[in-house]
Design a protein that fits this description.
Length: 769
């Protein structure tokens, strides 16, 4: 039976497979695995050993007869406790991917179909919605189709080009129509250029959350709202629910906050129904209470992680608007719905990152508060329209032009809970956002300011230590070689964090070597020559150096179809991949083989030109049954040894024959026989591999050791430098990136750089890409 652990975000015990399904589309597989390992705890067993039953006294005969008679009566059949999904399947409703219009056309009846209410924000930040009939209940976001609507009617497009796309982002249960129907939170994109539509603020927020994911941001928003009496259709309502019919004002605020009773808790049926509806929908609503003005209430959503905060709050607002449709009232998110001596309506935002929640996190809270003070104007711009009418300094929270923070101070811009001060860790509450604020804009600026504030420390920490991945290649995995390599690493002042063996069967099954040589492998196997970019300079070198006596131009051999990748080249020549590899190994640089870029070689084999023809033969050395690699994960202070010296002096260059005396490759080259090797090392079989840069080391440890980018010091530093998680993972494949006017190999650009310089270069590359 699969192990179950408690997901702290939901409180439910789930298997890893169920956790993957729940967070698919929100987090990457690796992040969910890290979450499972680092945060999800094994549930405590509630099962207790049954105590032996106490000896019972014999019952009187009359009582015994009555009991026997009662037990003889037939019992009502209990209803089977089926899960909703099982119930749906029992009713013949499909789950999974929607079949679309073509599938609907083939159905005799739509009675088993599922309704999906798509919800999005218009140009003014107001929720809009429309319903679609689907052939199945979606289990994940990718099961849903991209839909469209008339953007000219929502202020997001012109009438002559009005189509706007709805891209699904989150699925909720539909509490109005009931199971199996769903509500879909979507964001809007222009159909004509596939760019975010007007007021699609989710995109920027998601990028920021992704950039600072290693900080693991948690949010909780206290959404205040005011129930209003209906006015003229289409016009803004001006009278809160509970205000006197004769136009006079009710008694001053005081008894209404968290109150109960007629004429005090005005609008409770709306608040309660909304609460229940949100729970049914699956929204992370954590509480409600009456507020300080008649008809004013608050509901709290959270804790939510990252982009999830905006999604859940937007959907909870939509549900509130739907609930008020049948209660003869209007919900206002206006920050100052009623002029006079009445509190306004806010959207107090509670926030923390992992360093705040850790021991000693109070100092981090104070540091971030100081950073917020320096960015006051930037924050206020994102905190809602007409917020100046609310932030006057007269009704809790200081005025809009003043910034201050304090412990348990509700009159401050930022309130730090008393418990946070006492325990030395916790969270902070930004009291400035207005009730009508866009939660994506609010959480985005909060996370951006926090991330930038803490980035300097994160980058500094990532630059202090060098961490590399070193492994002994299959041809050299012998005990004496292991001893030599380990002694050399330790002698150079390196700390071995981890070491071990990885067998060929695992390397082959998990395609570790293919990922390791990502760009090289792709060029040799999956990519066609026409898909590759050969720079003008490289083409000139090809014509100049490669078979120069024939004056061969790259464009000419391409036109004549004489260029192949390794896989197709072997087929063309009618030989095996291993045979092609052996032919390739005999080629000479500058004569019949040339390097176009990092991991990009072209060689003349018989009558054709082959890209990376060495790869298939190289791969087989790592996947041959009975072989393995032996690895070391090592670290050392960056100030003690430069990365260039680590590779050039300690490891030695690719050709072991030219390696400096005392280097690892030189030692193995000279002592190969006594170390147990079957042949003297050469350029291909040179004994040991080591990461070419701190970034390449991160990629290799992520691949071979499943290292977490968000927990790794250098990985966190890369993210803090402004490189997104998506970009990092793309760069692990060593793509050609735009930099300083040309396209260059990412790995080549950062090769041999120390951690600090590597981070600067990665930041600059990210800015250009």
């Amino acid at each position: 039976m699969a192990e179950k652990r408690v997901d702290p975000a939901t409180g439910e015990a789930v298997t890893l497979k169920e956790l993957m399904a729940h967070y698919k589309g929100t987090y990457k597989k690796r992040e969910v695995e890290d979450y499972w390992d680092g945060y999800c705890k094994v549930p405590k067993s509630k099962a207790k050993e049954k105590k032996p039953a106490k000896e019972q006294k014999p019952e009187p005969k009359a009582k015994a007869k009555a009991k026997a008679k009662a037990e003889a009566k037939p019992k009502a059949k209990a209803k089977p406790a089926t899960k909703p999904a099982e119930d749906v399947e029992a009713k013949g409703i499909r789950t999974g991917k929607d079949g679309g219009a073509s599938a609907l056309a083939k159905l005799r009846t739509f009675s088993k179909c599922v309704l999906a209410e798509y919800v999005w924000l218009d140009a003014d930040g107001v929720t809009r919605s429309k319903t679609m009939t689907m052939t199945a209940r979606p289990l994940k976001v990718s099961d849903l189709k991209v839909w469209n609507y008339d953007g000219s009617s929502t202020g997001q497009a012109e009438g002559s080009n009005s189509e706007v796309l709805l891209k699904p982002r989150a699925i909720f249960n539909d509490p109005f129509r009931g199971y199996p129907h769903v509500m879909v939170l979507a964001d809007a994109w222009n159909a004509w250029d596939d760019k975010p539509a007007k007021n699609n603020t989710r995109v920027a927020c998601a990028e920021t959350m992704d950039m600072y994911r290693s900080l693991d941001p948690w949010f909780g928003i206290e959404q205040e709202y005011t129930l209003m009496k209906p006015g003229k259709v289409g016009l803004k309502s001006a009278v809160p629910l509970g205000f006197n019919a004769d136009g006079s004002e009710p008694a001053p605020q005081g008894p209404y906050y968290t109150g109960a009773g007629f004429n005090v808790a005005i609008g409770r049926p709306v608040a309660d129904e909304h609460y229940k509806m949100c729970l049914e929908a699956g929204i992370k609503i954590s509480g409600i209470n009456a507020e300080v003005m008649p008809g004013q209430w608050e509901f709290q959503v959270g804790p939510c992680r990252g982009i999830e905060m905006g999604d859940h709050l937007i959907m909870s607002r939509y549900i509130m608007l739907r609930v008020t449709e049948k209660h003869d009232c209007i919900c206002s998110f206006d920050p100052k719905p009623k002029e006079g001596d009445w509190n306004g309506a806010g959207c107090h935002t509670n926030f923390s990152v992992e360093p705040m929640r850790a021991a000693g996190g109070y100092d981090c809270i104070v540091k971030v508060c100081e950073a917020f003070g320096k960015a006051t104007k930037d924050h206020i711009k994102e905190y809602g329209e007409d917020n100046d009418k609310r932030l006057t300094g007269k009704h809790e929270t200081c005025d809009i032009n003043t910034f201050k923070y304090g412990v348990a101070n509700r009159g401050a811009s930022i309130r730090i809970p008393r418990d946070a001060e006492k325990s030395g860790r916790g969270y902070m509450e930004d009291r400035r956002p207005g009730a009508n604020c866009d939660p994506y804009r609010v959480t985005n600026i909060i996370m951006k300011t926090t991330g930038e504030c803490l980035a300097a420390e994160t980058i500094e920490a990532g630059a202090k230590m060098h961490t590399a991945f070193v492994f002994i290649k299959p041809h050299a995995v012998y005990d004496k070689v292991k001893e030599l390599v380990k002694d050399k690493l330790v002698a150079e002042g390196m700390t071995i964090l981890k070491e071990g063996q990885i067998k060929a069967e695992v390397i082959d099954k998990k395609k570790l070597i293919d990922t390791h040589y990502g760009a090289i492998a792709a060029k040799a196997v999956s990519m066609k020559p026409s898909q590759l970019t050969v720079q003008e300079k490289a083409q000139q070198e090809f014509e100049k150096q490669l078979l120069a006596e024939f004056g061969v131009a790259w464009s000419k051999v391409m036109e004549e179809g004489l260029v192949f990748n390794a896989l197709d080249g072997a087929k063309k020549l009618g030989i095996s991949s291993d045979e092609l590899g052996k032919k390739y190994d005999t080629l000479k640089k500058g004569e019949d083989i040339i390097k176009f870029g990092g991991g990009f070689y072209c060689g003349k084999v018989d009558s054709i030109y082959v890209i990376n023809g060495f790869y298939m033969n190289m791969r087989s050395k790592f996947t041959a049954p009975g072989t393995s690699i032996y690895y070391y994960e090592v670290e050392w202070p960056a100030e003690k040894m430069k990365w260039a010296d680590f590779r050039g002096k300690m490891l030695g260059p690719t050709d072991p024959a030219t390696a400096p005396t005392g280097s690892i490759r030189n030692e193995i080259y000279n002592k190969w026989a006594e170390l147990g090797l079957k042949a003297q090392p050469d350029t291909g079989d040179n004994g040991v591999h080591a990461s070419a840069s701190p970034f390449e080391a991160l990629a290799e440890r992520s691949n071979w050791l499943r290292a977490s980018i968000t927990k790794d010091p250098f990985g966190k530093a890369v993210l803090a430098s402004g490189v997104t998680m998506h970009m990092i993972k793309e760069w692990f494949d060593d793509p050609a990136v735009s930099f300083e006017g040309g396209k260059k190999s990412l790995f080549d650009l950062v090769e041999d750089l120390d951690a600090a310089e590597c981070l600067k270069k990665l930041k600059a590359i990210a800015a250009e890409n």
